[in-house]
Amino acid sequence: MIADDHPVVLAGVEALLKQSAYFVVARCANGEEVLRATIATHPDLLILDLNMPPPSGLELLKLSEMQAFASKTVLLTSELSPSELKIALQSKVGGLVLKESAAQLLLSCLDSVAGGEQWIDPQITRQLLHDQGHSQEQAPSPSLPVAFTARERDVVKLAAQGNRNKEIGRALGLTEGTVKAYLHSASRKLQTSNRVELVNAARQGRMIDDH
Questions:
Q1: CB contact set of 20 (below 8 Å; sequence gap of 6+)
Q2: Do residues 74 and 111 make contact, with C-beta atoms less than 8 angstroms apart?
Q3: Model pTM?
Q4: Residues 3, 24: contact at Cβ < 8 Å?
């Protein structure tokens, strides 16, 4: 299912999906239509505009009748504030993609979410880190009293670049299960609860770089 109140965006997403393995079961222009269509079609994946007419994509995630679909939902947005990101992650959203991103990133996101993984547009995390850096530029970056193993660092670095677990495994010669184990270990060290928090904490602690 796809939903956006801008016809051009809606048509563009639908055209992209028609060239992929995904089939569009419903097109919606607002949150009310999404609610009705979700009950009628029980879609495998939902692509929703974060700020469409109410209830918005973000508001839909908080409704009890939509909570079962949260992990199957990808939110499209032109911009995302730290508070909106927090709400989306707390609602266990499947994916977040900026509308300005390349079409292939949306397909990569859908593949990850369909496979049970959470996928966040790398540009979203980079922008939030940039904003946090400006708001805290007078404060020194905290040093974390933990260290990654070489393999944990490699895995987290590739995750920070937006790679899926399968792609990380292929690049490093690891199984997906082993990749998940390294991510879990790294997350436990930094006391984070999801992929975005892990990447942010690792970058802020200078435990990985993007080079």
A1: 107, 110
A2: no
A3: 0.72
A4: no
